[in-house]
User: Which sequence fits this backbone?
């Protein structure tokens, strides 16, 4: 009986640990998603290549192009897997002369843009009204603009609220202003020509989100861009599959342990079973006694296994997650799952020994008679 | 019609390619209220007869009819119910469950009956009182002497108030004084109306029995009436009958 409880407990412990650690690692990746920025880009469909944003051709100058609107940006949140859409950052890109140079002026929704680009290091402050701008480090050098300085776009005054530290990306050569203001300034109300989306999907490939988004936005071109996060997620998926495989093997081994132990226990108690049968216990009574015993020991193993799994997870998780977060809390659902797993394995593996016990010939069992 | 009737009962054990004829075409009737002793040398089929009679071992041929019930025509679960209702078994080595207290052992046959727990306890206490062990109800079997353990076993056999008590060498593991006490207890039960069938080696035990059945090689050797008073006499008569 001790080996039975021990075997089941260890099995449940392992499964709980694997499940918990996998979950913690997934959550860890989800928490980090922001730091990796967008992984889906949406642009209007067009043959014409007009503007280039980070190696990406963005159209929007030609008039016969199907335009993207703010309503389209809202539609992204209505796809089936909308839970996986973390950030939607709409943009309007234009070229405009500032201080006699043509520079790229990008209208953005500042709060969302700042949420998407967690890695931005901003000197100065975040724009607090629609006359304030953020400029890239190259712009600062080329146009000799400083924080607090005034400049003009198409005859309207803007103030430099913040300057980005060099990012090594296209953002270094961009002037960011408020989206609405940009739309008015360039005479394109409600129009967008780029939407950046940060999406994370554990159980579906990013291509699936792209497909769902394309369905909602037939006039747009939706593209996935591969990122570090995805290779991390791929590794994660592999780890998940590995965990499931290991869990399955362990549960199988546990089932065998239970079966051997139950059989041994039945053999040990042959005489007892003979007594029960002689004094009028039915075969079903014998089965019930043995299965009740299996149920109770499995219940115990399930609870102990969950407890041990929780402890092991707390020790192991900090070593496996990026931020060393071992904050694993008590989880009723997982406790229920552990108990159910133990009881299921315990009972299923005891059915055959119990059946055999119930079929024992009482006279053979009672050698004395 | 006798309470217990065996009709042409045959029992053959098949072990591998060996066939042991434990009982040969045996017919026998035992009346309600009788006290019957089964005697015979070791291996003569006494235990087999008792277990066939007690619904524990299906005969190869023949019928066992108890109180009008054809025992082996019942399915295996109904036969368990039959044993519970009609029979109390007492074994040579007591066969108590070592990790249950005395009263729990006695209550065991009631576990699968509809009696409420309190009622079961009451019935067990009552029967322990009768065998004189009420004060030891909460002890474990190991803490009791052999004679006491056998009394517990008898209490367990009786707690259901079965009409028939079957005992296989109930005194085989006991000294003669204790054996005597156990036999007296069985006679007391017989006087209260239980039909008692015992298997015994000990000639002392067949004082006062209503009938003694002798087995040899699975056959009824002789049935002796009330006149049998000692083992020697029984043997003497046996010799006579054989001649
Ligand atoms: N379960 C069994 N399998 C095979 N042979 C058995 C079995 N039980 C008893 N026998 C044989 O049947 C015969 C009668 O045995 P048994 O009824 O135990 O005799 P007794 O109780 O008079 O000593 C013996 O030869 C014994 O070896
Ligand atoms: Mg015997």
Assistant:
């Amino acid at each position: 009986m001790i080996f039975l409880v021990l075997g089941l407990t260890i099995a449940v412990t392992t499964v709980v640990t694997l499940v918990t650690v996998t979950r913690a690692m997934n959550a860890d990746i989800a928490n980090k998603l922001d730091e990796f920025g967008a992984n889906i880009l949406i642009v209007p469909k067009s043959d014409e290549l007009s503007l280039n944003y980070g190696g990406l051709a963005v159209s929007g100058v030609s008039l016969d192009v199907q335009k993207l609107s703010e309503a389209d940006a809202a539609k992204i949140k209505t796809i089936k897997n909308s839970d996986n859409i973390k950030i939607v950052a709409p943009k309007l890109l234009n070229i405009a002369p500032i201080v006699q140079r043509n520079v790229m002026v990008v209208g953005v929704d500042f709060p969302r843009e700042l949420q998407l680009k967690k890695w931005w290091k901003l000197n100065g402050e975040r724009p607090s009204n629609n006359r304030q701008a953020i400029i890239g480090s190259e712009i600062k050098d080329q146009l000799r603009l400083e924080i607090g300085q005034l400049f003009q776009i198409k005859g309207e005054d803007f103030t430099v609220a913040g300057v980005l530290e060099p990012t090594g990306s296209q953002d270094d050569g961009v002037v960011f202003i408020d989206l609405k203001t940009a739309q008015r300034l360039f005479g394109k109300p409600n129009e967008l020509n780029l939407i950046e989306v940060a999406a994370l999907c554990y159980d579906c490939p990013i291509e699936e989100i792209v497909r769902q988004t394309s369905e909602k936005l037939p006039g747009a071109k939706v593209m996935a861009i591969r990122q570090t996060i995805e290779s991390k997620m791929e590794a994660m998926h592999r780890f998940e599959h590995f965990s499931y495989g290991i869990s399955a093997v362990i549960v199988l081994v546990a089932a065998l342990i239970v079966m051997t132990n139950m059989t041994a226990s039945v053999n040990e108690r042959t005489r007892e079973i003979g007594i029960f049968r002689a004094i009028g216990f039915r075969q079903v009574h014998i089965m019930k006694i043995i299965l009740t015993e299996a149920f109770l020991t499995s219940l115990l193993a399930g609870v102990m296994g969950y407890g041990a799994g929780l402890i092991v997870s707390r020790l192991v998780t900090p070593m496996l997650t990026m931020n060393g977060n071992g904050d694993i809390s008590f989880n009723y659902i997982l406790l229920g799952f552990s108990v159910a797993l133990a009881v299921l394995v315990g009972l299923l593996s005891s059915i055959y020994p119990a059946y055999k016990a119930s079929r024992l010939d009482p006279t053979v069992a009672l050698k004395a008679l | 019609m006798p309470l217990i009737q065996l009709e042409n009962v045959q029992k053959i054990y098949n072990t591998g390619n060996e066939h042991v004829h434990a009982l040969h075409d045996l017919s026998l009737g035992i009346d309600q209220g009788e006290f019957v002793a089964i005697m015979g040398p070791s291996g003569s089929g006494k235990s087999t007869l008792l277990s066939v009679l007690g619904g524990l071992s299906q005969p190869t041929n023949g019928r066992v009819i108890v109180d009008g019930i054809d025992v082996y025509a019942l399915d295996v679960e109904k036969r368990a119910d039959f044993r519970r209702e009609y029979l109390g078994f007492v074994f040579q080595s007591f066969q108590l469950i070592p990790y249950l207290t005395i009263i729990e052992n006695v209550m065991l046959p009631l576990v699968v009956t509809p009696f409420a727990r309190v009622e079961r306890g009451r019935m067990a206490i009552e029967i322990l009182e009768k065998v004189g062990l009420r004060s030891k109800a909460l002890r474990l079997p190991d803490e009791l002497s052999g004679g006491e353990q056998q009394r517990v076993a008898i209490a367990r056999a009786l707690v259901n108030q079965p009409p028939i008590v079957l005992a296989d060498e109930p005194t085989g593991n006991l000294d003669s004084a204790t054996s005597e006490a156990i036999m007296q207890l069985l006679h007391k039960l017989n006087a209260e109306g239980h039909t008692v069938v015992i298997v015994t080696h000990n000639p002392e035990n067949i004082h006062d029995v209503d009938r003694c059945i002798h087995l040899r090689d699975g056959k009824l050797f002789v049935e002796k009436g009330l006149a049998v008073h000692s083992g020697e006499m029984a043997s003497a008569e046996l010799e006579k009958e054989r001649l």
